[in-house]
Amino acid sequence: MSLSRLPFPDPGTPDLRSTAAFLRWMARAQWRTLAAGVTWGILWMTAMAAVPAGIGAGVQAASEGDQAGVLRAAGVIAVLTSVQAAAGVLRHRMAVTNWITASSRTQQLVTRHAAHLGHELRRHVATGEVVAVTSSDVEKIGGAFDVLARFVGAVVAFVAVVAVLMHTSLLIGLVVLVGIPLLGLAVGPLIKPLERTESAQRHRLGRATELASDTVAGLRVLRGIGGEDLFLRRFRAASQEVRSAAVDVARVRSLLDAEQVALPGLFVVLVTWIGARLTLSGTLEVGQLVAFYGYSAFLLVPLRTFVEAAQRWTRAYVGATRVVRVLRLERSDAAAPAGTSVLPAGAALHDPISGLTVEPGTLTAVVCAEQVTADEIALRLAGLDEDGAGVTYDGVRLGDIARATVRATILTQDKDPVLLSGSLAELLDVPRSGRVTVQDAIETASAYDVLDALVDASPDVSDPMRARITERGRSLSGGQRQRLALARSLVVDPPVLVLDEPTSAVDSHTEARIAGALRLAREGRTTVVLTSSPLMLDRADVVVLVLDGVVVASGRHRALLRDDPRYRAVITREEVTAS
After folding, report:
1. Are 347 and 362 in contact (CB under 8 A)?
2. Before 7, cis peptide (omega within 30)?
3. Which of 282, 536, 540, 564 is the most buried (most CB within 10 A)?
4. What is the CATH number of the domain that holds 281?
């Protein structure tokens, strides 16, 4: 497969029964490039292994004064080195292809599943963990497929060299046959500690990444409350933990590297000494001794390849385990039936937990004494609650309605909306009813000054719709982000719109304009606003008071403010005195 075809139109459906099953599925998915890489790897390694035979033949011919034999040996060596060079280039190209293909496929699987999980992802796994998976673990998995071609080539070359040695000298052949596996087993006790230390480092790296991402996301708030030093100390501590774990990994790796140098060196000395003794006794010829020395030196390459493969596969297994863990996560609505595909345009929305009923076509404001209660109600009204969406729409549980249908009917805007990076036109390029234009939505959200600010921040852009928005809108104030998000929601114009504190970061004059325009823009549609702002409440058709998670009063804002001390206490933050 050509790398130009990446990313995949469809990365496929992975086998998640186990980590090993997932890696086998990955291998089957790119078996053609793996087979090509293995073929070139075998040719490259066997050509390298045959060079000592040519050198030995040339030395033997020279010792016997056979000029023609020397030329023939030189020709054979030239051919072998040429084949080795060509096969090495092609083997490396396929190794890189296998590495990038496996990494890209894994990354697409993780990002696709993260998008499928949506808001539920953060309930199961930290954001930093997902970042670490897509930035670190995918490369480790790719590395396992990178080394595969060299590993298979090393195995074939090792078997071929042992066969030649045993044919020439049974003693040296047996020494090599037994000695090389023993050298490989000598590093075995270090593989488990390496896996353990790398897993610990990987866990601490994920925690540090999570802390960094959370800190950056809340940097504006931290500066406002003077909390930078506290989070800086926490991040320094987390960084030191990562550094300590990296030192532990480096310590084990250094022992592995030392063994790869010392033990093979002693082995070459042993084989050379045995060969020299056999040559002195007349059992071996000089050319054969030279060839044996060359074989012994060459066998260090397969040995190092075996150790490298063990290290890479260990890291890949650790990384794949975390990838499988993320891919196994399921949405709470994954098993929900297909259900109703079309919902009536105007129907009542009822939350049995709080007792809230939202009549169709009204602007309903919900006042909660605690923000966490408002957040829970907003999630339930959108069918995103943990216990299976007990809210009903037209008497039907949202959990029994197709997810796509619920999303097309009910739209919830969080109090801290997320704005992806891109142009303003891309931000507002959302599914829409066609009833509300982009200009109407921007005007209703009182966001024209936000457009001016975006143009001022991009002097090379004259069209506000082409102005760029940074990731999560971090270059904008909280109020500006809220108004752009509100404009986006209004463009969609869903039958039911749930707004959780949509103007909490907006000044009072702007909020007053939004409150009046929102009522007109959503006329005939159902709108729920969870807020304690008197400006918004005064425009609502009905205001509902929720205390301790349950509806306790409803009516118009001014009437409730006059007649209900509980409502007045929440709105004005006054203490309620017992009568």
Report:
1. no
2. yes
3. 536
4. 1.20.1560.10
Tokens of 49: 């292994």
- Shared-domain flag, residues 252 and 323: yes
Find the DSSP H helices in 17-133: 19-29, 31-63, 67-117, 121-124, 127-132
pLDDT at 388: 46
- Please report, as a single letter, which amino acid is at residue 529: V
Same domain for 276 and 188, yes or no, is: yes
- With 60 as the cut, is the pLDDT of residue 17 above it? yes
Secondary element (H or E) of residue 426: helix 424-427
> Within 30-66, where are the H helices?
31-63
Q: What pLDDT was estimated at residue 78? A: 93
pLDDT of residue 217 exceeding 80: no
CA distances to 132, 357, 553 from 329, rounded to whole Å, are: 17, 33, 40
Name the domain boundary from 327, 361, 386: 327
Residues 133 and 322: beta-carbon distance below 8 Å? yes
Indicate the angle between helix axes 300-327 and 67-117, nearest 10 degrees. Answer: 10
163 and 288 housed in the same domain? yes
Based on the fold, state whether residues 219 and 155 are members of the same structural domain.
yes
No. of helices (H) and no. of strands (E), the chain:
22, 12
**505 domain-assigned:** yes
Residue type at 265 in one-letter notation: G
Q: In angstroms, what is the C-alpha Rg of the chain? A: 35
Within 10 angstroms of residue 47's Cβ, the number of other Cβ atoms is 21
pLDDT higher for 294 or 106? 106
With 0-12 / 13-18 / 19 or more C-beta atoms within 10 angstroms meaning exposed / middle / buried, residue 13 is: exposed
What's the number of domains the chain is made of?
2
Residues 358 and 317 in one domain: no
Span 359-407, pLDDT tens digits: 999 999 999 988 888 988 988 888 876 554 588 888 888 877 877 788 8
Tell me the mean pLDDT in the region 121-146. Answer: 74
| Domain identity same for 444 and 378 | yes
Per the structure block, which two tokens stand in for 90? 């092609």
Residues in the chain: 579
Residues 287 and 381 placed together within one structural domain of the fold: no
Q: Which residue has the tokens 């030189």?
A: 74
Please indicate, yes or no, whether the overall pTM of this predicted structure exceeds 0.70: no
Would you say residue 577 lies in a domain? Answer: no
> What residue numbers bound the domain in which 209 lies?
15-327
270-327 confidence digits (pLDDT tens): 777 887 787 778 777 788 778 877 887 787 788 788 878 887 888 888 888 888 888 8
Q: CA of 498: how far to CAs of 344, 406, 446, 489, in Å? A: 17, 13, 19, 10
- In a domain, residue 282? The reply is yes
CATH of the domain at 418: 3.40.50.300
Tokens representing residue 308 in the block: 């490298």
Q: How far is CA 398 from CA 341, 373, 385, in A?
A: 12, 20, 10
Structure tokens at 539: 């425009």
Cα–Cα distance between 576 and 572 in angstroms, integer? 11
Which 8-state DSSP code applies to residue 543?
E
